[in-house]
Amino acid sequence: MPSNVQREIESLQADIRRHNYLYYVVDQPEIGDNEFDRLLKRLEQLEQQHPKFASTDSPTQKVGGEPIAGFESVEHRVPMLSIDNVYEPSELSAFDGRVHKLLGENEAVPYSVEYKIDGVALSLTYEQGRLARALTRGDGTRGDDITHNARTLRGIPLRLIGDYLPAVLEVRGEAYISNTDFAHLRAEQEQRGEQPFANSRNTASGALKLLDPKECAARRLSFFAHGIGYSEGASFETHIEYLQAIREMGIPTTPNVQSLPNFEEALKFAQTLMDDKHSLNFEVDGLVFKADRFDQRERLGQTSKSPRWLIAYKWEKYEAVTKVLEIGIQVGKTGALTPVAHLEPVEIAGTTVARASLHNRDELRRLGVRVGDHVVVEKAGKIIPHVVRVEEHLREGSEKIFRFPKRCPECKTEVVQDEGGVYIRCPNPNCPAQLRESLRFFASRAAMDIEGLGIKLVEQLLAAELVTRISDIYRLSSQRDRLLELERQGEKSIDNLLSGIEESKTRPLWRLLTGLNIRHVGTSNAQVLADRFGTLDAIAEQSEEALADVDEIGPVIAKAVHEFFASSMGQELLAEFRSAGLNFGEPVEVREADLGAKLFDGKTIVVTGTLARFTRDEIKEVIRQQGGKASGSVSKKTDFVVAGENAGSKLDKAGSLGVRVLSEDEFLAMLDGEASPKK
Question: For residue 426, is it within any domain?
Fold first, then answer.
């Protein structure tokens, strides 16, 4: 029978492993750092007092053992090949084309998409569930044995969880340092009078090559798994299945990975990952697209350098260090309070950056940004700038902590947090900031496209109380004299404005639905709802369940749509828009009987370059109304490419694939019935 001491040691080891799993793998910690440290210290104390009960895979062994004399070079049982990189969306489409050429044009190929961690490649081999060896990538054929250092990495379990573990399992992934830990590390170096490390990736790489594991542990490296190498006694059909399995074994995997049924859906999800990049606490330099099914990977094979079943879509990173002059709060059209860093202007990738969104209260807390801080600001792929981390080592003591407001800065209403969410909102539907942003959005090209109604005029209309709600826009025609009294508004500009407002009444239903500013409803969802139900009244009459049954809508959007139209504000807006004569759509059965077969039914059309007669949104709407699908990328499934001036890589891609290219005049001839839309 085990002694009481042995039972306590084993119980503590199991508890600590479980808490490590909750913290590093599922991001749902149950205890705080102090309580975790107390458990670990108790275990250390017992193991020191009773060494015969200690084990090499105890959580206490992660702090680092004795230094080693040198590195052993070890052959990889399965080579660690490099990944081919591309930098343009057209090159991604070419990758999908090669995959289908090898597998068959009509074979369905699901893809997984995941972040490309900017870290150091690492291979971990578990034997009978225990960490046996860790290797660097090396030259792809042989790597250095850095097991002594890998044992110190956060998130790497020394023993796997579960009753049925593979005899041998080689897990591949990235060693990295989080942005938060890197900021702390540099601050500690500054305090010691040392030169701070330049970047996290090189710091991680150097840490793994240290002979003393205690020094490596001090660098605070973490680990994400993303691939599989050699294995015995393991069977997985897909990449997603494999990632789920090793997560259940206690190994953290690259977050937010999804499997998509085809390449077009994978591209859409890739955009979501790029949009969410600001929320990450680690560096990424691209996305990785992988054929999800292992049997298809086997058939695709590899070249001498790289697998044929995956590709990395990389972007260049441009960054600079600047100072936070102030942190302000911006109230959006849905009432969300967004903290914004006002920066000392700095040039990044050819443009001057003077502000960057801090997104939400949780992100502000995670970054720890203070007024007066020096921060690293990044523009990945020359897109919207975001704050990566605080340069804590540059703090002088005069920096001020920003207190997130408890009341809306515009209307002083007490703010609330989304249930189960991260956003703090002003719940007052009459908040002037919400009205201002809602009006601006309603008139924007994404919604009703009212020419002349920009943010400056919106602010004047609100200040003069000519508009107190969105529907008041359609009463402005009776206020012409008062409009002429506004600053810098002459006869011609007012005539253009009123003409634009009148013209907006004929906009298609999906634009009006977009402009209503219903939470979670964007352009694509509005088009889906308009196509499915036909009229605004029909959408408003649907139950939450009926809305949720529509493809691409789901329960979250359905709830938001149903609540909007059930609210007194939603019902009043409908009545006022109907009275103003806005286009509410046509019943589906009438519309279908009226139109019959459409010109571009079943056709996929790509538009590229600058057009003379259409904006990009206008031509996409024409394509959609005629039954076609406006796609953003060229593939063998593309029926036509409409090319305007300065058409770029999409035109080249169409030529290489033999896809028919139309000029704008030829496209118009099709619409006028003077040419055939056949491929």
Answer: no
Do 177 and 302 have their domain in common? yes
What is the domain-level CATH number for residue 249? 3.30.470.30
Pairing, β 370-371 against β 310-314: unpaired
The whole-number mean pLDDT for each consecutive block of 10 residues of the chain, a chain of 679 residues, reads: 73 77 69 73 78 72 59 91 86 90 90 94 94 91 91 89 90 94 88 84 90 89 94 92 93 93 89 84 92 95 90 87 95 90 90 90 90 90 81 92 93 88 86 90 90 88 90 91 87 90 92 90 85 90 89 84 91 93 82 58 82 76 78 79 78 80 84 61
Residue 37 identity (one-letter amino acid): D
Q: Is the whole model's pTM more than 0.70, yes or no? A: no
Q: Which of 62, 116, 637, 653 is catalytic?
A: 116
- Whether 75 is covered by a domain: the verdict is no
Q: Is residue 71 part of a domain?
A: no
The residues, ordered by sequence, that sit 6+ positions from 432 with a Cβ below 8 Å of its Cβ are 410, 411, 462
Q: Is residue 323 located within the same domain as residue 299?
A: no
Cβ-based neighbours of 556, under 8 Å, separated by 6 or more: 520
Name the residue range of residue 340's domain.
Answer: 317-401
Same structural domain, 259 and 386: no
Question: At 349, which CATH number?
Answer: 2.40.50.140
Q: Report CA-CA distances (Å) from 4 to 1, 7, 9, 50.
A: 9, 5, 9, 12
The kind and range of the H/E element at 387 are: strand 386-390
Of 61, 44, 62, the residue nearest 152 (C-alpha): 62
Known catalytic membership, residue 116? yes
Same domain, 46 and 99: no
